[in-house]
Amino acid sequence: MGKSLKRWVWRLTLVLASAVLLYQLWILGHIVYWNFYNPSSSAFMQERLDVMREKKPEAVLQYQWVPYEKISPHLKRAIIAAEDGKFLQHEGFDFEAIQKAYEKNLEKGKFVRGGSTISQQLAKNLFLSGRKTPWRKIEEAIITLMLENVMSKRRILEIYLNKIEWGNGVFGAEAASRYYYGVSASALTSKQAARLAAMVPSPRFYDLNRNTPWLLKKADIIFNRMASTSIPR
Questions:
Q1: How many CB atoms lie within 10 A of CB 28?
Q2: pLDDT tens across 71-113, in order?
Q3: I need a surface site. Which of 35, 109, 124, 207 has the fewest CB within 10 A?
Q4: What is the pTM of this model?
Q5: Which of 93, 113, 91, 92 is nearest to 102 (CA)?
Q6: 40-77: per-residue pLDDT in tens?
Q7: Domain 38-226 sits in which CATH superfamily?
Q8: Parallel, antiparallel, or unpaired for β 165-167 and 170-171?
């Protein structure tokens, strides 16, 4: 390789590395900002809105931010019980859950279970597309570490509960509570919270199929776990 080519390779590598670093700093800046101010949207919300507007140009999301103290403790317990039982103990990753998910998927020969924590899910929803690539998983891990080191568990859960999808165009605890039960997020009962938590892995499917045996069974399992589940104060 000639000196001129080496120089160009080095310059290209430096430019790419600088671009990656700037992107990480851009994400970190948003996370620091969102530690004090509420995010108005997320990458996943925008992605879903774009898909909806392909069929219906005037489509809008059902969404309303609600502060942590105005979300029912039942829903907080239900979500942690359903999605991330070790949320208060881990630092962003539950390696035991990841291992179990891997073994389960290997046994079934297809993807049937995920091992992502609430922090990982929030990282993906806030910044990343739905495409599953090795780069996206690496970026998800980096963003998860940023979230865990900048935000408290309470803030992570607060944003998560306000940003996750709960139906076709339905985002956040307040919109979901009103959409399914006609009440505010603060008024949810334990049974209602368990049902909402059970819907999280496939919200658009359960929006159309609200009384499937599997959903009812999963809601009962979550309900029984809630009493022993701790939440951030």
A1: 16
A2: 999 999 999 999 999 999 999 888 887 777 666 666 555 444 5
A3: 109
A4: 0.90
A5: 113
A6: 999 999 999 999 999 999 999 999 999 999 999 999 99
A7: Biosynthetic peptidoglycan transglycosylase-like (1.10.3810.10)
A8: antiparallel
